[in-house]
UniProtKB/TrEMBL annotation:
A cellular component annotation (GO) from this entry: cytoplasm
Chain coiled-coil ranges: none
GO BP terms, alphabetized: mitotic DNA damage checkpoint signaling
Protein name as annotated: Kinase-like protein
Keyword Transferase assigned: yes
Pfam families in the record: Pkinase
Occurrences of domain Protein kinase (ranges): 1-216
Record's keyword terms, sorted: Kinase, Transferase
């Protein structure tokens, strides 16, 4: 699939998130499997539209309060850092997941997907631990604002432990940072995605700001 068609799918998805967020709902499970693509039926197989599906765990935010659940919900690979702790999930958490979706769509899937679940289990590593350590390696360092958002002893302990692993990794492999391996995307795409995947939930853009970014005007 060509670059422009992938961005078209992403644009439709962002507009679906905008509609959801405008009604004060969050999706919580934004991932490739939940994007349904319709083709125009012609020989060129152009994208007619794309829709965001699977609202089984979607949640309506009440009075601006963040969602807190007993266990983390949604697919671990695509969760926000706060989502991995099951505490502090908001619209900003959907934005983070959408940022990951953009990376996947633009060719970075191998950096996000977990192909070794059995190996993780064998070594006593949970998917949440693996994903957090990767994301902290890519998008770190971890800001204090993330700990304040989670504000949960067990959740913050998990974040701190994975942050230490990520910091040690970057110390010897600085090229693991998103800033380095995303250069082929171009500076405008880098800027758009880095805003969405910042580890500070309070500074992530709204979906309206995402849609207003100049990246969408690029070919």
């Amino acid at each position: 699939m060509v670059h422009t068609q992938r961005k078209k799918i992403l644009r439709y998805t962002a507009e679906a998130i905008q509609e959801l967020h405008s009604r004060n709902w969050i999706h919580i499970d934004i991932k490739p499997d939940n994007i349904l693509v319709n083709l125009d039926g012609g020989d060129t197989k152009e994208i007619a539209n794309a829709v965001l599906g699977d609202f089984d765990i979607a949640y309506r935010l009440e009075d601006g309060k963040a969602l807190r659940t007993r266990h983390a919900i949604g697919n671990a690979i695509w969760r926000s850092p706060e989502g991995q702790t099951a505490v502090g999930v908001t619209k900003a958490s959907d934005i983070y997941s959408f940022g990951l979706l953009c990376i996947y769509a633009m060719g970075g899937g191998e950096l996000l997907l977990l192909e070794n679940y059995q190996d993780l289990v064998r070594f006593g590593i949970t998917p949440e631990q693996e994903v957090l350590s990767r994301h902290f390696t890519y998008f770190g360092p971890v800001p204090d604002a993330l700990y304040r958002r989670v504000d949960d002893e067990a959740g913050c302990e998990l974040l701190r432990d994975m942050s230490k692993i990520a910091d040690a990794t970057v110390e010897s492999q600085h090229e693991r940072r998103f800033l380095y391996w995303s250069k082929e995307l171009g500076p405008v795409a880098q800027d758009a995605i880095s805003q969405m995947t910042t580890l500070d939930p309070t500074t992530r853009p709204t979906i309206e700001q995402v849609l207003a970014h100049s990246w969408w005007q690029e070919g």
